């Protein structure tokens, strides 16, 4: 491990084989925490490559607990996080809209690492716990078309690394790899990253991992979601090819808004925003969800354009179906509460 750390500190990109070796050692209980910290910091300072990211994702998937899910077209709309902007939980909110629109959403998520409230923190405030078994997650996927997969539950070896990440306090390769390490076999993916220079590389990683379709966005202002604040950079994976496009809210019929208009708070505050949006409260929060859900519907193939996706999302929220989906998942959660050990 120490030689690999030295190589990375000297600015060397790792081969797939080297990164597979390093990733295996990251999850080894015998690897000192200070070595994990040094490796993650060195990678971040050097800049992670698509090859390194794909190798880490494959090792993580290989060590994850399986849901034994039925064959289906599953989508994850989890972003990488780490943008430091402090927005509300956009992709979590959009997930209810997508599931209400007949998309099978297997959403990877975590607690706060570098934000005020991660998806798990907000979901718990809504009444959705993070302690489902893999069998229950499978049942949710099949019955509600929506499962929030809490990363530490399906990646038990992440615990030590989580301690290191919190100590570092800044985004690492684990922010980038989170959406790619979903234990569910995904055919489609929509994710956001806060690195405009990496959107095409990230889409290429999706291709390496077997995604049939995918969209990667870097939002205006560095948001790891599509943003109302200006021009958004997208990389679209279709038929094994990646193309880049840019979109603006105005071109899609939405009003431009500053990033300050979508600020979030703690889990309780974000949970209230989720409820407001799903109950069709007008404003920047709602429009941001419409934009991101619209792109996800496009990625999934439910619609042929992003504009159609936004229209579909608007109808679903206005009908009450998205809020009903939230209520259904909350009800399931309350029926499957674990007794304290």
CATH fourth-tier homologous superfamily of the domain at 74-155 and 183-335: Nucleoside phosphorylase/phosphoribosyltransferase catalytic domain
Distance between the termini: 37 Å
The strand order across the widest sheet is 3-2-1-4-5-6-7
CATH class of the domain at 74-155 and 183-335: Alpha Beta
How many helices in DSSP terms?
15
The secondary structure category is: alpha/beta
How do the helices and strands line up, and which of them pair or pack?
Blueprint: H1 2-9, H2 16-26, H3 33-46, H4 50-63, E1 74-76, H5 90-100, E2 104-109, H6 119-126, H7 134-144, E3 146-150, H8 151-154, H9 158-168, H10 173-177, E4 188-192, H11 199-208, E5 213-218, E6 232-238, E7 241-247, H12 267-278, H13 284-300, H14 306-319, H15 321-335
Parallel strand pairs: 1-2, 1-4, 2-3, 4-5
Antiparallel strand pairs: 5-6, 6-7
Helix pairs in contact: 1-3, 2-4, 3-9, 4-11, 5-13, 5-15, 6-12, 13-14
Keywords: Amino-acid biosynthesis, Aromatic amino acid biosynthesis, Glycosyltransferase, Magnesium, Metal-binding, Transferase, Tryptophan biosynthesis
Binding site for anthranilate 1: 79, 110
Binding site for anthranilate 2: 165
What would your notes on this structure say?
It is a single chain. 48% of the residues lie in helices and 11% in strands. It is of the alpha/beta class. A seven-stranded mixed sheet has the order 3-2-1-4-5-6-7, with helices on both faces. β6 and β7 (241-247) form a beta hairpin. The longest helix has 17 residues, at 284-300. It is globular and about 60 Å long. The two termini are 37 Å apart. The model has no long low-confidence stretch (mean pLDDT 93).
